[in-house]
Batch of 3 targets.
Target 1
Amino acid sequence: REFVLTQMIPGTALGVLLGDLVYTWMAFRLAHRSSRSDVTAMPLGLDTPSTFAVGTLVLLPALNQGMTRYGLSHAQAMVFGWHVGMIVLVLIGLFKSALAPLGSRIRRWLPRAGLLGSLAGIALALIAFVPLWRQIAAIPVVGILALTMILATLVAQHRLPGKIPGALAAVLLGAVVYYAGDSLGRGLGWPIVPSLGNQEASAWRSPLLLPDFSWNLLWWQRVTIQALNCLPVMLPFALATIVGGIDCTESAAAAGDEYDTRSILLTEGLASVAAGACGGVIQNTPYIGQPAYKAMGGRAAYTLATAVFIGTAGFFGWFAHLFDWLPAAAAFPILVFVGLEIGAQSFHATPLRHYSALALAILPALAYVVLIAVDEVTSGGLAGHANMVVQPLRCLANGFIVTSLLWASALAAMLDGKLRRAASFLGVAAACSLFGVIHSPLQPAVIAWPHHVFGQMPADATLRCQSPYHWTAAYILAALLLVLLHIVQQPSKP
């Protein structure tokens, strides 16, 4: 815990600091160009799926590799795993920066239903539902009360006396009720809220990027080899943030703030490079809360305050104290509002005829949420009938952001009568399926040649029917069907 807070977090916070400062400058520049005072900055933070993935798929395997293969002590192996994570993050940042110029073209090519549909799926399924399930419902005495305050003040727009911000009031009210319930429960001998389980906060020390034993060429050769081995596992997460950044730019445009997609993506890529070079291990990405922050009154400078706070707190170790003091059930209801606001805005900014495409885009995100619960309960170990039930779910969940985008775009094109265009989206889905960008049957999902993936699948014939070859064939057949329908159908009158 101390190693993470004092070595990994400062560099990670630096990436957020730099990215948010650039987004603040972009917002002020847009406000000046458009002569508007209501421009809201794009938010930037850490990519949540990558946060979990880098721990389980990069850091821990590298830690074990350092001890078992290279004979390192645990302390040295921690540094080895950390350096592997840094190199992986730098490579991911360069990869995202190289693809940034394509962002504007992709945004022009894809329909709004596709871009905002995948965003609505993330917002409702992950940002709103997961906190509701994991934090709020776990402590309803605190969570439901704070959520009600959020819904009344931010969604229904009822003002509090003295113009107290609703989000701040919700957090403070939840914290007061939590600590009062904790004290009352101790007195009565009957639990009202679970204990926070406070841990002793780590003492702050200046981050040390290069310990004495890491100043040699052999060390960095081993680190680089391990990082390259991890890259196929982490590239899907990088692609997801690229799609997410394009989605976020479209969402901001729908809310009235038109940012340059290339600049948004290039900023997140270079911020990730800077974070990795300074010890960070988690990639940066634009957050999808811009419309919600605009509704809360956030303008061009709120990301400046965020940058200063995150940078200072990350470098000086304040997060350890904050985590120990603030109950999650009091703070997480704000995410429910963010999810609801983005979901509502996605439907509001999409043509009525494309609503079914938006709804379709939410389904892969629901698969991802269910898979989170299944993997936590089973620790990823399943066999027999249970594996047959879960495997299709895993295929739907892996790469769900890209899947949502392509499904919604294809259906929107069908609804517009553009069957050949819809077929082209299904063709892209076929190519993505072949290499594991979407529908990977493995845990974790990896970008790999299809025969490598097929060789790692269970021998059961039913499960092998969900291989990359089968998903690719399915999309190709679906695309051919649409082309055939385009050929045989009669031109319809306006």
Target 2
Amino acid sequence: MNKLSVILFFIVTIGASQTFEEVSEIIYNKCTTCHRPGEAGPMNFTNYQEVAGFANMIEEVTETNYMPPWPPDPTYSNLLDERFLTEDEKQTISNWVQNGTPQGDPLQEAEIPTFTDGSSIGDPDIVFEMTESYLIEGNNYDDYRVFVFPTNFEEDTYISSIEFRPDNREMVHHAIIMADVSGEGAILDSEDPGYGYESYGGFGLSVPPSEYVFLGGYAPGMNPIVWSGNLGMKIPAGADILCQIHYAPSSMDEWDQSSINVFLKNAEEVEREVQMKMWVEFDWMIPAGDPNYVIERCLDFDDSFWQEDCSLPESWSVLGFLPHSHLLGKSWEVFAETPDGQIVPFIKIPDWDFNWQGFYYSDYMLHVPAGSTIKGIATYDNSEDNPLNPNSPPQNMNWGELTTDEMFFCPIYYLPYEEGDENIYLGSQESTVLNEESTIQNVHIYPTPATEYIDVMFK
């Protein structure tokens, strides 16, 4: 047998031995979060029979990177809850499908992660549920509705997390949550004849978005952040929780009665209150017909929206970010440039998809020194070749809150920097701090053989 024959024999043998034992670990940890009863996925992947029944489809959507949905570039920065598949994982699935989806030994299959009913992160302390079902009219239009939840908190209340739980998962496109200390939301609710009040894009308040107390949000497949250790967020005394839900267009009447889970935290535990800077830019216009229009802005700190001073006045530890565009969106990149010219990468989304967006969190706190500049670069396609362009023929596009308008919008979670923040991991229930004495086990190096750069993953 010559050398080439040996290599081909080895490849065929490896492929033929691929069973659901190896595939189950990939599916259960990267797909079942959404593909299980009561969640966003349209079919369930909780056992061999369910997965094998959709094997050909799974092979196709994973090979094309359509699933699992993960728009950020995994080579640009490291984020929590990354759902992308490696080339080896995609090949494992393909080998299994091409060899007839053999089950192998059921006792050797991976265990399905433990999921909590009614929550993805645990038992909440408070549940705010819509007091009645809301009718989503089947008129094929987007429906943006704000619902008001009085907290009746008599004092400032700290939380470790807030979790939106959609009732009608097919209709809820996304949701954003804020604390309203002005009482305006309740007034708008009382003035609207229906349940809640209509507000496209934002909350319809007189205060600018830069002054919102933004608490969190929801998009399909997105897990809420849990602020562990001495971190927490504050809901001010007397505040109402406002939840704006974007219901997708439908040709049939639908109903929804979603809820919000609140996870409390003792005030004594919270030594550092998570802050948010609402980054909103209005001074731009996307010309009609331009297939590659670039908006590049830096985060200003005098709220003038004219970038009079983009230098960070203090050192930050950046925790999370939400780059946001609408149907003309094509790509995003957000990063910081330090005074000495170093780049701190936040997130890069090469192929923007309005249907798959969410709030993203860094795996470790990102140190951004004072004097740095935080920059955002968003690209838009306002040409007739963009199948999602809401205008035919294309028209000049400005800021607006309708889906058929456009946005340059990027809230950022942060803390004033403290020495050692860059070693604090944000992904566990209890903050993990790396130091010189830390012992790391189960180290995985990718790629192998190593090239100029390697990724080191550990558990």
Target 3
Amino acid sequence: MAQKFRSFRVEAIVLKHRDYGEADRLLTIYTRQKGKLQVLAKGVRKVRSQKAGHLEPFSLASLQLAAGRTWHLVSQAEAQDIFINLTSDLETLGYASYVAELVDRFTFEEEENLPIFNLLKQALTRLNEGSYPAQLVVRYFEVRLLDVLGFRPELQTCVVSGDEIQPENQYFSAALGGVVSPQAGKTLSGAVPVSVNALKYLRHFQRSSFNEAARADPSPPIYHELEILMQYYLTYILERGLNTPAFLRKVRRDPDAKGQI
């Protein structure tokens, strides 16, 4: 019977952390090689710790891990990119936290999934660069993540009748996983309205590369509609709400807080 390696190196993105004991920190990371892991960084909260600056939330780092009784232990850490702009203001921090929370909620430990790692890395890189609207980056990430996870919503044909969707306002059913025609949607429990323009952008994101999707220019009301629709669908799949959307809504209501950190 093959034994697990007692020490191995991974490329990892820190999703979140919490203090553990007097000087340690328990990290949830997503790795290129092994998917999601929980690892313990011993002594990292000590003033003289050489690993502390390499293990901040959202950091991309090369980690040497050693097998421990409960968790893998971080024996070495070298940051490759700390994405410093993600913490420059509360709104950007909120979007980065949202992306990390989605990956954390939708994945299980030690299930390798390179496409998810790449999507996460790309989203954080784009948010950090700030060259594109944050909402565009996040909406595209959501659509692509759903594809990888096997929850791609049906947006071309009515999930009730099977008929091709016409260019008019429709409904969307999270339970059925897709768009519903006006005739069927009016009486379908749980179906919510979706405008023809919002549906157009979702279809565009599904079929396009990011560079192609980035040419889209949804209006603020469409962005708002897309956000509500995606939260409705993601919450249904997860069977529970997410934490970061409430934080983002609070920041948006308080313009003075957007630039504070």
